[in-house]
Every structure is written in structure tokens, then in C-alpha cells.
Amino acid sequence: MTDAFVPDSIRHPSTGERMRLRRAWPRGTGHALTEWETPTGELLAGQWFADRRRLADAAARTPGALSLPHIGVLVQPTGADGRLPALGRLVQTDGAELLAHRAECRATVRLPEGYARVVQPEHAPALVAYASRAAHYAGSTFTVPTLTGYDTMGATTWSTLPGESLFELERSRRGDDPADVWHRLGRGLAELHTMRLSEADTAQLGQHTAADEHEAVLQRLRPAWRYALLPEIAPDPALARLHQERPQPPTPVHRYCGDRHYVFDSTTGRLGLVSPEGLTLGEPALDSAGALVSIDLRRRQGVISPARAETARSAFLQGLCPDSETSRRIAAYTAAARLRLAGAYAFYPRWRSLAFELFCEAVAEGELSRGPGEWLPPLVRAGAKMD
Fold this sequence. Notes:
single chain; alpha+beta; six-stranded antiparallel beta sheet; five-stranded antiparallel beta sheet
């Protein structure tokens, strides 16, 4: 039996206006974080609980939250959050703007002097440590934000990274040719991948292995299967190459290579690293595939044309100049990246058909790589839903 899940639209508890579910982040059984969009484009954080007692507990610890008990939804406007104690104070600061809020998890607030990242107080030291490592290992290749403040309530303040995200540059069509910025990203990642490390550096960074990537894919897919958002087909054939092929020697990798994780400063020509917490050791093909799949995702979403996507892809590879080992492993990590995206985008109601497409393609390619065999009939029989 399929578990019930958060509705795709609700009425605002106070205004009655219709809000659509922009995205959900499943959190275990019977719980999800939510982001709602109002008719004017305002984004509101929230949560959904299958258990009404858990909903009541969350409402009780969150002053300012609005509850819809009949559907298990808690809406958390203007930074209302019982587990991010610093957030409410920050959003009331003159000139502050709440940029992103994932309920009881993290938030980003633009401030006149920079921006703040807010997490649960016990997680703030790790965030500071991640940024320190990024400055040490990636600072010569990428611009990284500078920590300017830190308090015991979970608020960290940072310098602003100059420039615009690669996603915004693509969406706005600024610049006639996307080749330059993607060539710079390829070159920057190549420099990161060839950085020499001491034994102490290696121990500090940790490692993301092929087995870790396999499990990361399953963590994305399991909730989508639980709520029948993707067909429940084991992706083992698509992920087999992660383990069947010889892995590359680990190098520093960023791991988060989507276009929202970098900003480009056209004045200096430097790229900024938005998410330093992704830095670890891994196979260079992990980053390479992540960037290429990000370009392909924007093509599928209509953000960029097929011609611009091909230009970006070619420029990235020219800048990266992957060796034979990286080229050999890109296909394995590409399948994993597509499956991870499928699991994530299944929780965007607008993009569920895209999630289905990504999932089916990855599974089909996995089946074909091990020999002839029918794959589509089982997927159809699984009753996959398409928007």
C-alpha cells in the first residue's frame, strides 16, 4: 500500500489564497519539509506530518507557525522556526531578506553587510569547519566566502560572493556565449583534482567512494518509491559500473557541481564556491559527471537551448581536459547523478514527468549495458505517474 503524502496545493491558513507545493524534502516515514509558493511568487517554508500528534508538537514549539491539522501541514512564514532560534531575530534586521528556508534545518538571509547561514546550534561548528577547509584547499582556484561572525544560536555570517550563479546567467541569457564560464569551471575543477595533499590533509577531508555514491542514490530513490512517485524498479544494473570498473585514485572533489553552487564574477573572471561543505576526496569523474548532468538538466527544463547546452558541455570538457581514467568513469557517475536527480525532482510536482524520464533513461541504459532485455513493460506495469 502506498503511503499518503503532502497535497500538491493548499489554502493559506490566514488569507485563503491557493498555494502550490514547489518542493518537498522527505524526512523519514510520515514527515517531510515543504516549500509553498503563493500566487505572487513568495516562498513559504513548512512541514508535513502523517501523525497529527507530531504536527501538534511542531506547532507548539514554533511561534508564528500556522497549522492545517486536517491535512497535516504546518506553514512557517517569515522565518518562524522552533529549531533555528537565530532565524527570527535575523529576518527582523533592517534590510534583511530571507532567501531560503528549509524548516528546522537551515536558512539563508541576505544582510546589508553580507549574508547569514542559519543552522541548528549544534551544527554550526561543522559548517565553520567546512568553510575553513574550503579556503585551505580550494581558495587558490575558487573564491570562497569569508566567515565574518558566529554565535552560539546557530547563526554564521559571511562575506558576499561577487557575481551571479551559473543558473541565473543561463536563465537570463546574459552573454551570447556560455562557453567561457563553463570552460573556467572545467579548468577550475581540473586544478582542484590535481592538488597535492599531505597525509594530514587526506585524513581531514574524508572520502566519498563509489559505494557511498550508490547509497546516496538509494537514499534519494527510497522515499520516491514509498510515495509511488517513481516506479519501484531496482537501479542495480544502472549502478553496476560504479563497482565493476576500477575506481580512480581519490583526489579533492567538490561533489556539488550543479550550476547553483557556483557564482561567476565577470569583473575578475573568477568563480565562487557557494557550498564549501561538499569538499571531500573522491573520484574526479564524480565532479565531471555532476557538471555535465547539470547542463543536461537545464536543457531538459528549457532553461537553455540544445545548442547552448552543447556549447556549455564542450567548453566544460575542454577546460577540464579529462584523462583517460576520468573519461572512462564519467558514464558510471552520470547514471548515478541522473538517478539522484530523479529521486529529488520527483518531489517537485512541476517536474515529476522529468523525474520519471531521468529514471527510465538511467534504468534503460543499465539494462542495455548488460545485454538485450525488455525494461519498459515492467515500468509501465508499476503504474508510474506522469504529469
